[in-house]
Specification:
With 248 residues, this protein is of the alpha/beta class. The chain is built from twelve helices and eight strands. It starts with a strand and ends with a helix.
Length: 248
């Protein structure tokens, strides 16, 4: 089954609103590719200016986080309806930085996946292992557990439309990259987990990204693998290199 490639930039906590618009203008002609879904996942304060800046282009807007309630006394948080009205289509859920720095667990992440679907947003659901788990050889069990928890009570039809991002934590922002074979091994395993939890048709439909220091130099090799359908790009999404990744 031919799955449509998806390249998403995770800007993290970078770019003021004016800088964000300038980056959109810089990347505009570089990321043109009608055969690829291109997404900018940007800080909350940049969503409105970025949504305006990418109007009429092939770029979709994503958010980096949100809270599970629609409104209320949750100081500092942002809701799915707010994102939706601002032009957001995708939302990153369960990024390792949210898990490690902000203490998000799989129960909350599962609630966020449910809320995203209920609100008409497409989750980019992250999973991955630390260096310690990789070295201990227990990373497969860890990732399987994350996916089972995070997809609790999510239907097959929903899973077919979501995006799963495999991000080995030891390869995020470190310059270390899993080899293409290491990345393919885990992405293939993730697809097998989905087949076990649901069915083969669902596994064949779900798009799986690699998200650990993908850059202009290694994107083509990673994306040539049969189970890697795209990338969740950190640092390289803030540079013209992002265009090379989109067109790799």
């Amino acid at each position: 089954m031919a799955r449509r490639r998806i390249i998403a930039g995770n800007w993290k906590m970078n770019k003021t609103p004016s800088e964000a618009v300038a980056l959109c203008n810089e990347l505009k002609d570089l990321v043109k590719n009608d055969d690829v879904d291109v997404v900018y996942c940007v800080p909350a304060i940049d969503i409105v200016p970025v949504a305006e800046a990418v109007k009429g282009t092939n770029v979709h807007v994503g958010a980096e986080n949100f809270y599970i309630e629609d409104k209320g006394a949750f100081t500092g948080e942002i809701s799915a309806p707010m994102l939706k009205e601002a032009g957001v289509e995708y939302v990153i859920i369960g990024h390792s930085e949210r898990r490690d720095i902000f203490g998000e667990n799989d129960i909350l992440i599962n609630q966020k996946v449910k809320k995203a679907f209920a609100s008409g947003l497409t989750p980019i659901m992250c999973c991955g292992e630390s260096l310690a788990l990789r070295k201990a050889g227990t990373y497969k069990e860890w990732i399987a557990r994350q996916i089972k928890w995070d997809l609790t009570d999510i239907t097959a039809d929903q899973v077919k439309t979501l995006v799963i991002a495999y991000e080995p934590i030891w390869a995020i922002g470190t310059g270390e990259t899993a080899t293409a074979d290491q990345a393919e091994e885990v992405c293939k395993m993730i697809r097998e987990i989905i087949a076990d939890l649901y069915d083969q048709a669902t596994a064949d439909a779900v798009r799986i990204q690699y998200g650990g220091s993908m850059n202009a130099g290694n994107a083509a090799e990673l994306l040539s693998k049969p189970n890697i359908d795209g990338g969740l790009i950190g640092g390289a999404s803030l540079k013209p290199d992002f265009g090379q990744i989109v067109n790799a």
